[in-house]
Write a structure and sequence with these properties.
Blueprint lengths: L4 H10 L8 E4 L3 E5 L8 E6 L5 H13 L5 E6 L7 H5 L4 E12 L15 E4 L3 H15 L6 H14 L5 E8 L2 E11 L2 E9 L8 H15 L4 E7 L3 H7 L3 E12 L2
Parallel strand pairs: 3-4, 9-10
Antiparallel strand pairs: 1-2, 2-3, 4-11, 5-10, 5-11, 6-7, 7-8, 8-9
């Protein structure tokens, strides 16, 4: 089965992740999300679909964003998004991240990936220790801070049911008892939505990311996914995913827009 570009881009946009602890303001033209303070930055625009002229719609979003009292907004521009780059840059915005929109056909099963050079054990994060290790790694690599202990307990309780139930969860790659890498997957509408792949800098280049990827792809096929999707960092995970058979279907840009 070949994957159509329209199908992949639509599925990529639909996989926008918003944690349960966030608040969301949604209109017909945009969606603003206020995440907990442990995220960096905590205010994000994840959808922009104005019905009329673009420039006044951009100004209206920024006016509303300023009312949150935060220094900046992360504005995500999807592969099929409107040409807003020049409008954002004129307001001092800079590109914070460039992501490849990648997809892999899983209809005939997961690919066989080479084993890592390191001896690692990949565990599903279904208890407090593995959840804490995964969350700490993600904060170290992507920025932000650790959520409170109560939130970690909630995540452990949730994923202890979600993982065996086929809804997805997080994996952690260990060398002994030292966590080296992590990554998440959510199964929805027949697609495996991969997210949060991260490896400690000292362990990179040794196949740790590939080990967490293989575990997530095998799980996804076992639970009925026929396509894997990921918005991957161009410089780091993107090349690994291409080597694993993923193909590119466009790019997603994240801008940091100053609000003060």
């Amino acid at each position: 089965m070949s994957l159509s570009a329209d199908k992949v881009v639509a599925a990529s946009i639909a996989m926008t992740w918003v944690p349960e602890t966030a608040t969301s303001e949604e209109t017909e033209e945009y969606r603003l999300v206020r995440l907990p303070d442990c995220f960096d930055p905590p205010l994000r625009l994840v959808r922009f679909s104005p019905a009329g002229p673009v420039e006044p719609a951009v100004a209206a979003v920024l006016d509303r964003a300023r009312q949150f009292g935060l220094p900046e907004l992360q504005w995500t521009v999807q592969p099929d998004g409107l040409p807003v780059a020049s409008l954002l840059e004129a307001r001092g915005a800079t590109v914070a991240e460039t992501l490849d929109v990648l997809a892999l056909d899983l209809s005939e099963g997961a690919p066989a990936l080479p084993p890592p050079a390191l001896e690692v054990e990949v565990r599903w994060a279904t208890d407090l220790q593995t959840i804490s290790d995964s969350t700490e790694l993600a904060a170290e690599i992507f920025g932000g801070s650790m959520p409170p202990h109560e939130r970690l307990v909630e995540l452990a309780n949730r994923d202890s049911a979600a993982v065996p139930g086929g809804r997805g969860g997080m994996v952690v790659a260990y060398a002994g008892e030292t966590p080296l890498g992590t990554g998440g997957v959510a199964i929805a509408a027949g697609a495996a939505r991969l997210w949060g792949g991260a490896v400690r800098p000292a362990a990179r280049g040794q196949g740790v990311y590939r080990a967490t990827l293989a575990a997530r792809l095998d799980y996804s096929v076992a639970h009925g996914a026929t396509m894997a999707l990921v918005n991957a960092r161009v410089e780091t995970s993107g090349p690994i995913l291409r080597q694993a058979g993923f193909a590119a279907y466009g790019r997603q840009l994240s801008y940091r827009v100053p609000l003060r």
